[in-house]
Structures are given as C-alpha cells and as structure tokens.
Amino acid sequence: MAEGYVQDKSLGIFRSDYMLRTSSNHGELTLGQVEFNTFSVAGGCHSNKVSDMHKYLMETGAYGKDGTGAGSSFPPNTTIKSIAEGLAEAHVAYGGARSGQTSMLAVLFVVQPNNINVCDERPIEHALISMAVPSYRVEFGDEHFISHEDAMRVAKTTVPLYPLDESELGQKARTLATNPESAAKHVLKPSLEGGGHNIYRKAIPAFLKSQPVTSWHENILMEMMESPTVHNILLSHLGFYSGPAISELGIFGVCLWRQGPKSVEVIRNRQAGFSFKTKRRDMDEMSVVKGYGCFDNPCLI
Q1: Alpha helix (H) ranges present in 230-290?
Q2: Which residues, listed in sequence order, are joined to residue 17 by a DSSP beta bridge?
C-alpha cells in the first residue's frame, strides 16, 4: 500500500492559545502564545455558551447598574456555528459518493464510550444537522495573507521552546531542565493531549530523573510566562473562589485546503470564535476538564 494521504483535501480545526505576559522591558505587557492545538481542540461549545450566558445576564441587569456591564461589552462568539460550517464546507468540497455501493455521504463523529465532555460536542452535531452551506471555491492570492509587518508581530508572540533530544539545542534544554534554579523558570510539556500532564518549575528535575533518558525527547521545554493578575470570582467543583486570577485566550480557526503536486490551494481560512479561560493565580494548570480552570468571557472596555 502506498504511503501518504488518500485524498487531496484536508480540513483543520485549530485553536491558538495566548496569555498576557510582563516583559523585562519596563514591565510592558505583550501577548505570548502558550500553545497551538491541532488535535485535541476542545472548549468551543462551552465557551460559546458561557459567552451567551454572560451577555444575557448583563442585558437583564443581573450585574447591576454599576456592575461589569457598565460602559463595556462582551464580544460576539460564534464558535459552534463556525466549526459546524467548516465541517459542512468540507463535506461539500469532498464531492459526491465515490462508490457504486454508496448513495450518500455523511460527517462521521467518533465518540468515546462514557464521554464526560459530551456537552462540548453535541451542539456542533446539532448545528451541523440543521445547516445548509453553499460551495465556496476560492483560490487565495497575496491579498488573502497577512503582510510581512503583521507576520513579524505574530512572530513576537512566540515563547522560547526547546526540544529535549540529542541536538545542540536539546543539550542546552537538558541543562536548563536539570538545574533547579533554571528549571524554576520553565514548564515541561509532554506530547499528550487533554491538559493536566505538564510538569512545572522545580518539579522538573526530579521528574526527569525518574524517567529513562531515552524518553526525554518526548517532551519540550518552554519558558514560563509571568502574567499580570486581576481580581475575579470563580465557581467550580472546588467551590467558590474570590481573589487574584489570570486568564488565557484561545482563538479558533477553520482551514480547508487542497494539496497539489507542487503547491497548496487554500479553499477556506477564517477565524472561528474564541475561548476564554480563567484560573487562580496559584494554580499552574489551566485545564477546565481536569478541574483547574473555569470558562470565562472577556469584557471589552
């Protein structure tokens, strides 16, 4: 059997996560990319519903005249609709049935038994069932891509990352990770999805010592971001919390492309809503599913 993709079209549903960070340059606030999710891209439905809830509470006066809603607004969030549209457009782009034994095609949802995150998936299915999407055939030219100046601004959001392999950069990372003083400024990220698997700061050297050196390459080392705190109120299974907190912004994107012999044709590429998560300042992890963070909503002043 030949290797490679069976078909030339691919759909990607991505989420790029960002946090504010305090730079060493006079305490200036900049945006830092935490990670780019390409496989386990969750939270779209939850964040959409939380955005709708906060908007409703503001419009009905639940926050009071002098509350959060005064002089501010919540940005619209259409993550459920946008992700469903991406799936529908991919379905249209795939074309008709390619077998004489098939009369119609469908989008297949592969679901785990006893799935605890069903509420983050069913709304996409329901939106897709009731959706009619026209076929878009757009060949992207230079005008569809960001300028060099904007590309450099995006590049500045990246945070120093290191492999833990046998390369020269990997050897530098191993020195940083095994030294307690330098490890305290980093987070160790394994190649696992779902959150809750990271090793933080001074716990890194002991963790690596407990693992075979031959498996160290399965991790990356990332410099920690020092984010500013705000006062917030969180409600989770841990109970009620009121105090300093930090947030993370996730930007969803949907991209449909065709792989040609020598080039890639982008059919659709657009922003698809956002997620906003908040956690206590003294909590390292942000995963909501694991109980560390809470879904939230930004309020634009």
Answers
A1: none
A2: 35, 250
In contact, 229 and 241? CB cutoff 8 Å:
no
User: What are the helix (H) ranges across 112-161?
Assistant: 122-129, 148-155
**Nearest-10 crossing angle of helices 44-59, 122-129:** 80
Q: Which of 279, 295, 297 is nearest to 42 (CA)?
A: 295
SS (H, E, C) 52-93: HHHHHHHHCCCCCCCCCCCCCECCCCCHHHHHHHHHHHHHHH
Q: What is the number of other CB atoms lying within 10 angstroms of the CB of residue 218?
A: 13
CA neighbor of 249 nearest in space, from 93, 97, 23, 37: 37
* Cα dist from 226 to 32, 178, 184, 284, whole Å: 10, 21, 12, 11
Biggest CA-to-CA distance, the chain: 68
3-state helix, strand, coil in the chain (%, to 5): 30, 30, 45
Q: Give the containing element (helix H, strand E) for 248.
A: strand 239-259
Asked if the model's pLDDT at residue 205 lies above 60, the reply is: yes
Tens-digit pLDDT profile for residues 74-115: 899 999 999 999 999 999 888 877 777 777 788 888 888 888
User: Hey, is 102 helix, strand or coil?
Assistant: coil
Tokens 């060949």, located at residue = 139
